[in-house]
Amino acid sequence: MTDPQIVLTERVQQALARAFGSEHADADPLIRPSQFADFQANVAMSLAKRLRRAPREVAEAIKAELSDFPGTVEVSGPGFLNITLDDSWIQSEARQMLTDPRLGVGTITPAQTVVIDYSAPNAAKEMHVGHLRTTIVGDSLARLHEHLGNTVIRQNHLGDWGTPFGMLIEHLLDIGEEAAVAQLEAGLGTEFYQAARTKFDGDDDFKLRARVRVTTLQSGDPDTMRLWHVFMDATIRYFNKVYELLGVTLTDADLAGESMYNTMLEKTCDDLEASGAAVLSEGALCLFPPGFTGSDDKPLPLIIRKSDGGYGYASTDMAAIRYRVHDLKADRILYVVGSEQALHFRMVFAAARMAGWLPDTVTAEHVQIGMMLGKDGRRFKTRSGESIKLMDLLQEAIDRAAAAISDRGYDAEMQKEIAHAVGIGAVKYADLSVSHDSEYVLDFDRMLGFTGNTAPYLQYAQARIRSIFRKGGVDPAAATGPIVLGAPAERALALQLLGFGSALAQTTADSEPHRLCAFIYATATAFTDFFEQCPVLKEGVDPDTRASRLALCALTLRVLETGLDLLGVPVPERM
Length: 575
Description:
four-stranded antiparallel β-sheet
């Protein structure tokens, strides 16, 4: 099975080579869906200037080389190529897609090792809504890369080291290990931090103890390290509760916090200084990657060792990038991190290339995550101005979903299962369906709506398909067609389904989950039109038409479920 746009791209490029020479064979045919045909190729418009010929004349020459095309090609306007595929070709490709376990989706060749840095909550505080987008987007990209055959290495870069841990460990000792563990496992990390901070700011004896404790922590003192592990283990157990509720694929094996790189930092700095890439500037060891200047037009430093001998984020990130390239053998590294860190990562990548640690064969990309806003257009916070706990947000979504389906007659267990899928799915899809680098407003009423581009609408579409099979007493796996296209809505649905492979490939290549969301929504919309215009089980539908339409339903069901699963959106069997 081949995606129509891939077929058209190849055919038009071949026609370009035959018509104008092989040097034009790699030109982008600029093929897009069209309201006047199935697709429109606009390459004649862009190629005309290079050839010094009229666009329409160029389009006619391309058309002449497409005589064996499985459809019709018409030149319109100043030089557009309107392309309509034969029904027989669409039918044949849809049948192959139905019988393919992978729905016609190929794998990346050669496969790559992709390291994805995502989620990364701060262990000194509670997971809040700010961690939602990095976690969801990163997890969807991990799922997509694995589905396309890449080896994915997840890296949960926890904030689990540094000066705050001195006061946190001392506060743990003050209240007792048992009480501290209970608080941290209950998700009261922010309250724990605030209590420690209050004592640090107001109690000189506590401040002194905290500072001494930082020193013993950094020196690897066994008792201090044991206490650090008590704190971290309890915190991670709570994080895992959030991950489980959210349905993300991160595990303890993916933990790669700041502490992991602690022993590498001295060597990182020494090696950079010895190579000449890093130099001393006002007592600090700095890298000056080319092209970065401050407001005073002076070169902007990336400080990897402070003048007091301490290390910062840049130190850790330089150590991490070398580890990921050298030890993990990454071909591609994705940093799913807030957009406010854009300058930092541009400098880190440039510095790593300058040092020779990031070769041209490896790509490093900052998948920028925009801010979540409240209805007032400001950062999403509580009325008191504090960040909202992620667990509280997720639970509210589930509770609202439960209220929305409370009158549908399900037993308590089924209602709980559906409410979880709808609530969590709504939160995740609302995030994924917008460009990851844009800000978006968290609006429960909109995201839990059963109309429009929302998770409940898509979940309901697949649940409706399942109800068709239940009503007809047919297993979806047994609906094998053959697919025969008659009504326009059947044809439109089949053509839409054939684009699944391209949608996955583009989404993965560009790290843009919203593109897959748009495809799934368009698929559900095409199915709704089909459902309304093409009866499946209605009396009077002949057996062959019924079999064909059931096969289209089965194919749509698999595409919707596979697409939503790759996004990490749960799919309930009933709604």
